[in-house]
UniProtKB/TrEMBL annotation:
The keyword Chaperone applies. InterPro entries: ARM-like, ARM-type_fold, Chaperone_Ric-8_A/B, Gua_nucleotide_exch_fac_Ric8. This is Synembryn. It comes from Hipposideros armiger. One of its GO terms (cellular component) is plasma membrane. GO terms for biological process: G protein-coupled receptor signaling pathway. Belongs to the synembryn family. The lineage of its organism: Eukaryota, Metazoa, Chordata, Craniata, Vertebrata. Chaperone that specifically binds and folds nascent G alpha proteins prior to G protein heterotrimer formation. Also acts as a guanine nucleotide exchange factor (GEF) for G alpha proteins by stimulating exchange of bound GDP for free GTP. The keyword Heme does not apply. GO terms for molecular function: G-protein alpha-subunit binding; guanyl-nucleotide exchange factor activity. Interacts with some GDP-bound G alpha proteins. Does not interact with G-alpha proteins when they are in complex with subunits beta and gamma. Keywords: Chaperone, Cytoplasm, Guanine-nucleotide releasing factor. It holds the Pfam family Ric8. Transmembrane segments: none annotated.
Amino acid sequence: MDEERALYIVRAGEAGAIERVLRDYSDKHRATFKFEPTDEDKRKKLCEGIFKVLVRDIPTTCQVSCLEVLRILSRDKKILVPVTTKENMQILLRLAKLNESDDSLEKVSEFPVIVESLKCLCNIVFNSQMAQQLSLELNLAAKLCNLLRKCKDRKFISDIKCFDLRLLFLLSLLHTDIRSQLRYELQGLPLLTQILESAFSIKWTDEYESAIAHNGPPLSPQETDCAIEALKALFNVTVDSWKVHKESDSHQFRVMAAVLRHCLLIVGPTEDKTEELHSNAVNLLSNVPVSCLDVLICPLTHEETAQEATTLDELPSDKTAEKETVLKNNTMVYNGMNMEAIHVLLSFMEKRIDKGSSYREGLTPVLSLLTECSRAHRNIRKFLKDQVLPPLRDVTNRPEVGSTVRNKLVRLMTHVDLGVKQIAAEFLFVLCKERVDSLLKYTGYGNAAGLLAARGLLAGGRGDNWYSEDEDTDTEEYKNAKPNINLITGHLEEPMPNPIDEMTEEQKEYEAMKLVNMLDKLSRRADVKDLHQDGG
């Protein structure tokens, strides 16, 4: 009934009446995502009627009402076939200011029309294969990049940037050809990185270092949404970027990694938004060549170095392990390097473990990232070893029992998901410099058996990668307990009592004769078997 009334007014009414009836329809169906099949034909005709209205000279408010209803109707895939034409797509491109002839974004009154047009295009491209093909024909990716450049340094147009980026993400997700076009022809990597810089308001203090305001305000919801969409689009653009072939590529990836480091050290408007922001940053860091990830850590300034020295002097002399890592002015410092970003990644990983679900999607990316960082960068590996596998003191409990990061990771080594347990074991193995004896010390043979069998290292030895020869130091507590540690379970067991000690002499003699009789029977059976074989 709603469609019939709206269709009648759209076909015959003037702009004011059309705006009112479509506003009513939009208010009523704003949260509608499932539609009645019986009204499918009416919805198709309503879409066609709206496109005819959009080519007329109508007020901006009427355009917005038309586009809002079109956005709602475009959630239904079935009605898009007859309305997804080149002419209709061009109407939306014109309203979204995606035509190359549109040089500026000066009229603020047009912003709602641009945003609604982009929303419509997002729905239509996502739900229609015909629209996806037309996007290639109309070179939509290039037009979106052009619009982004107009928005790059402009304020108050976050919604335009956000939905432009979302549409760019969808196109690069659905078409591998567009990924290559974005990367090389359209210079999407530096463009999207600059969008992130703008969203985070980054101020560079060095080539790959930015100023971090630890007590600064959180990102606004609009800035956070823009950053998340840019991160997702960048992920698609860089998904095949495992190797760096040119110096310019290396520089660009280092800049992007530095921006992502900044991203990890700021927060969004809510805890959930912060986690989503950091999750997308982790996914994108997984695409960065590992040789460029050294910018995640940076040397301390002269002032910070002096502060670190003061802090080290304040620590007791017997705390040798703890003196490696200090916290000064909210900065995690290790061996003269700022480790804040790595510490955030470690905390993020632990939160994902604590969730207890969706490990493959939520946990494996950050575990893989930390593993590769540790394998390639010595300072990162040593810092993570210090945090995850500190020197053993109390070995009375099994390695998988407890609430430390080490305990949680060891539990994952026997997880039912093969991919999860492999990457958890690999991470710990790399922290142990791929030395079997060191891994067994922290996990026990039973937990590590799967990894060692897959690597052909059940008999001991080392992995294939080379690591520095700095020695691990055992605590006095561990050295004293080591002779009584069960290698299978990895924990201290009290010596088992000898049952013979509590026997009387008569019991001992009885057990000895029983053993002699058993050995005699076994010997006789062996002789009989040999006679049968000779006779045969």
